[in-house]
Amino acid sequence: MPHINLLPWREEAKRLQQQQYLSILAFLALVTFLVFFLISTYFQARIDGQIARNQYLTNEIKVLDTKIAEINTLEQKKKDLIQRMRLIEQLQKSRNVGTQVLDEMAKIVPSGIYLVKLEKRGPELFIEGKSESNNHLANMIREVQSSELLTDAELESITASNGDNKLLSDFKMSLRIKGLIDDADKADGKRTTVGGR
Fold first, then answer.
1. Cβ–Cβ < 8 Å for 125, 151
2. Beta strands 113-121 and 124-131: pairing type?
3. What totals of helices (H) and strands (E) does the chain contain, helices first?
4. Burial level of 129, CB count in 10 A (0-12/13-18/19+)?
5. Which residues cross the membrane (predicted)?
C-alpha cells in the first residue's frame, strides 16, 4: 500500500529555512556589531591618547611660558642693573667735576680776561666775561682745545662794553665737559652758577 504523507512538510521546510535565515542574519548582525564596536573602541582609544598628548603639550607650553616670562623679567632686571651700574660709574667719574672745572678754568683763562659768570647746564658750560683784546680770547680757545677736561669752545658773541671801562669787550662763550653725563634732563633742572656782577 502506498504511503501518503498528509503532513504539511512544505510549510515545515519553509519554516526551518526561515529560522536558519533569521539565525544567519542575527549572527551577521552580531558580528557586524562586534566589528564596529572594536573599530570604534580602537579609534576612541587613539583619540583619547591624542587628547592626553595634547593636554600634556599644553601643560608643558604653560610651564615654558612661565619660564620665558621669568627669563624676560630677569633680562629686564639685568638691563636695569647694567644701566644703574653705568650711571653710578658716570656719577663716580663726575663726582668732583665742579672742582676740576674750576681748576681747569684757572689754567685756561689767560691774563686780560675776566670771568663775570660761569653757568653749568648738564655737560655744557656757559661763560660770560670781559676781555682786553680778541687775542686773549683766541688764546683761551686754543687752551680749551688742548684741555683734557673741556672741549667744543664756541664764541657766541663779542660786544663793546657799555660800562665805565671802554677798553674791555663783553663776550659770551660755551664749552662742553668731556665724559660728563647729561643731567639736563633731570627732573629738578638745577643749574650751577658761579660768580656775578
1. no
2. antiparallel
3. 3, 5
4. buried
5. 21-43
As a 3-state breakdown, the chain gives helix, strand, coil percent values, each rounded to 5, of 55, 20, 25
* Sole residue written with cell 504539511: 8
Element housing 159 (H / E): strand 150-160
Q: Which of 109, 101, 114, 104 is nearest to 192 (CA)?
A: 101
The β-bridge partners of 154 are 174
**pLDDT tops 50 at residue 187:** no
CATH 3.30.1360.100 fits 97-195, yes or no: yes
State the DSSP string of 98-119. Answer: HHHHHHHHHHH--TTEEEEEEE
Count how many residues are written for the chain. Answer: 197
Residue 130, number of CB atoms within 10 A of its CB: 17
Q: Are 193 and 119 in contact (CB under 8 A)?
A: yes
pLDDT in tens, 79-113: 999 999 988 887 777 777 778 888 888 888 888 88
Listed residue (196, 174, 171, 158) closest to 121, CA to CA: 174
pLDDT in tens, 124-143: 889 998 888 888 888 888 88
Read off φ and ψ for residue 117, nearest 5 degrees: -145, 135
Cα distance between residue 188 and residue 124, in whole Å: 17
The domains of the chain are located at: 1-93, 97-195
